[in-house]
Design a protein that fits this description.
With 233 residues, the protein is mainly α. It is built from 11 helices and no strands. It is globular, with a radius of gyration of 18 Å. The termini are close together.
Length: 233
């Protein structure tokens, strides 16, 4: 048996719009607003904004306060990522269980930070060497964060587990990832049209809605593919 790409996509879409999927999307929307507001406030403090973050959501607070808000938002994003992965890997569709945001949270967060750095370095090295090894490593090691958050492994064990899990399925996982990336990119771009026509605030708000939905869909689809792979092991 092989990974069913269509089933992963359809199950991911369904889970996104079930009760706890919408709850998580709402949390991502709020967190996205806070993060963007802090980023735009920090960018506004400089004469030059190289990444074009805009100022529609900038806050009237000192730069130090914006930096603190950005730091807290980053920590909250770690927690929300852990909760989201645990929720979508489970069969729960109605609520967010207490264990999803209470069990082993500190170690999971620390391993996400360390693992994220290790994963980025490994994949970047692959892209520097040649483009194809970069995509290969990205696909092969993609599920390390699930092993950290769901299986309580440290990031080194998680990278090895992801390598073993994806063996024999990497091409289909690459196709799945590319499909999600293109689809979410088109969806997000459509919501960003108001900014193109000069409606910066409306564009920023709609952009956060699109980002929240696509972010949840991406995690939900990844989780459904992970569940398939675990059943095939």
């Amino acid at each position: 048996m092989e990974l069913d790409i269509f089933e992963a996509l359809s199950d991911g879409f369904e889970r996104t719009f079930q009760k706890n999927g919408l709850m998580l999307a709402g949390l991502y929307f709020i967190l996205g607003l806070v993060t963007t507001a802090a980023s735009q406030t920090l960018a506004q403090s400089n004469l030059y904004d190289p990444i074009g973050t805009g100022t529609a959501l900038a806050l009237p607070v000192p730069i130090e306060a914006a930096a603190v808000i950005a730091g807290v938002a980053y920590l909250a994003s770690l927690v929300l990522t852990i909760v989201s992965i645990r929720t979508f890997v489970s069969e729960e569709t109605e609520t967010i269980r207490e264990e999803f945001y209470s069990r082993n949270m500190l170690m999971a967060a620390l391993n996400l930070i360390a693992g994220g750095l290790a994963f980025a370095l490994i994949v970047t090295a692959g892209f520097i060497a040649l483009i194809i090894p970069g995509f290969f490593l990205l696909t092969a090691l993609y599920y390390w964060n699930v092993y950290v958050t769901v299986e309580d492994e440290n990031f080194i064990e998680a990278l090895e587990s992801s390598w073993n899990l994806t063996e024999g399925h990497r091409f289909k996982l690459f196709v799945l990832g590319a499909t999600v990336l293109v689809g979410t990119g088109v969806f997000t771009s459509f919501f960003g049209l108001p900014s193109f026509f000069g409606f910066e605030l409306a564009g920023a708000l709609l952009g956060q809605i699109a980002s929240a939905i696509t972010g949840v869909f991406t995690i939900a689809t990844m989780a459904q593919a992970y569940n398939q792979l675990r059943q095939l092991e």
